[in-house]
Specification:
single chain, 418 residues, alpha/beta, ten-stranded mixed sheet, two-stranded antiparallel sheet, globular
């Protein structure tokens, strides 16, 4: 069986540093931090009082108030970014077969705010089970792609992947495979998350996973820096339109790049910590290169998982050095989480978008907030510190890893001239 080629024809983003693709890209290349004191609730008794919130989001641009009341924020965010991506791709009812268009979405948690608010309301009552009839449909993680599907009439595969912080990368991998196997023409993929809540922040804080740098939120996410002390929680959404190459050509779509390959692996090691030698990360990158039919020296850029945690950053860079050998020093490595924070299930999507835009514009966004070199990190690696760097990017990889040892990687490449 000859596998079909898959390309990216549309992008959409709603992030802590920009509410659409252009704003997001401007924030990235200018090294803007999305971290600030939390505005959603009173943080007085919380250990971590800041996060990377989406700013100035107006749901009425996308839906009326009645519809919005039936949607958790993570689903509202999904609609916003998918609307932009579908428009960017130029998809209309006339140039697609709706039965061959799917929606495969990623969410690590789903409607956490809805769950929290409903349970807190019940706890205040007299024990009578008084719940909003939309409680379950607002909360469940699969509801975001359901709404995207219903909104657009897309009748192909429709579901959510859940693999913690690798969720949206796994969604993209599934989308890639469905299309290259000939089962779909187009899939709207990506992921969203809205976990900046009392429960979300409290839960991650109790694990000692979050930075507590309350005196300087904007510099708290500092991947690869010796003084890093945990990740900064972010929220938002990223959407990509994956499309079969001949289908895209036939309808005259613009093409950002080709999806070259993908890989998955498991650490099989620990509930939350990465393997210290990065064996699962080594495997996922090697699997991706093998799937893409590429050699390590062909890779120009890696957008790392790079969460700003003491263990995770070192393990990932060790894995990169192992896989890429002497070529590792020629790769522009970065972590855009230094600006957006960690979007959990939405991370893979917005970081894939950052990789694609780096390829399109020939600019690598920086890893900001780096101040002190970590002696355990190879100084020959180019971590794109503090300032964006210009370079031609023909091949880019995006890494995402999740609690439970889930590893996922997607490789993008410039479309070859024919």
């Amino acid at each position: 069986m000859v596998l079909k080629r898959v390309v990216v024809t549309g992008l959409g983003a709603l992030t802590p540093i920009g509410n659409n693709i252009q704003e997001y890209w401007n924030g990235l290349i200018n090294g803007i931090s999305g971290a600030a004191p939390i505005t959603y609730y009173d943080t007085e008794k919380h250990k971590t009082k800041f996060a990377c919130e989406v700013k100035n989001f107006n749901f009425e641009v996308y839906m009326d108030r009645k519809e919005a009341r039936r949607l958790d924020k993570f689903a509202q965010y999904a609609i916003a970014s998918s609307d932009e991506a579908i428009k960017d791709a130029g998809i209309t009812p006339e140039n697609i077969d709706k039965q061959r268009v799917g929606v495969i979405w990623g969410a690590g948690i789903g409607g956490l705010e809805t769950f929290q608010d409903e349970v807190l309301y019940y706890a205040k009552c007299d024990g009578t089970p008084k719940f909003n009839p939309f409680f379950i449909p607002k909360m469940i993680a699969d509801i975001a792609p359901a709404h995207i599907s219903m909104r657009n009439g897309f009748m192909g595969p429709n579901y959510t992947t859940v693999s913690a912080c690798a969720s949206s990368s796994n969604a993209m991998i599934d989308a890639f495979n469905y299309i290259r196997l000939g089962m779909c023409d187009v899939i709207i993929t990506g992921g969203s998350e809205a976990a900046i809540t009392i429960a979300g922040m409290g839960g991650f804080s109790s694990m000692h996973a979050l930075s507590t740098r309350n005196d300087s939120p904007e510099t708290a996410s500092r991947p690869f820096d010796a003084t890093r002390d945990g990740f900064v929680l972010g929220e938002g959404s990223g959407a990509l339109v994956f499309e079969e190459y001949e289908h895209a050509k036939a309808r005259g779509a613009k093409i950002y790049c080709e999806v070259g390959g993908c890989g998955m692996s498991s650490d099989a090691y620990h509930l939350t910590a990465p393997h210290p030698e990065g064996i699962g990360v080594i495997a996922v990158m090697e699997n991706t290169l093998r799937d893409a039919g590429m050699t390590p020296d062909q890779v120009d850029h890696i957008n790392t998982h790079g969460t700003s945690t003491p263990l995770g950053d070192v393990a990932e860079l060790k894995a990169i050095s192992h896989v890429f050998g002497s070529h590792a020093k020629n790769i522009n490595i970065n972590s855009t989480k230094s600006m957006t924070g960690h979007l959990l299930g939405g991370a893979g999507a917005i970081e894939a978008i950052a990789s694609i835009l780096a390829m399109k514009y020939g600019i690598i966004p920086p890893t900001i907030n780096h101040q002190v070199a970590d002696p355990t990190i190879d100084p020959s690696l180019n971590l794109t510190l503090n300032v964006a760097q210009k370079r031609e990017v023909n091949v880019a990889m995006s890494n995402t890893f999740g609690f439970g040892g889930h590893n996922a990687c997607v490789l993008f490449k410039k479309l070859e001239n024919e």
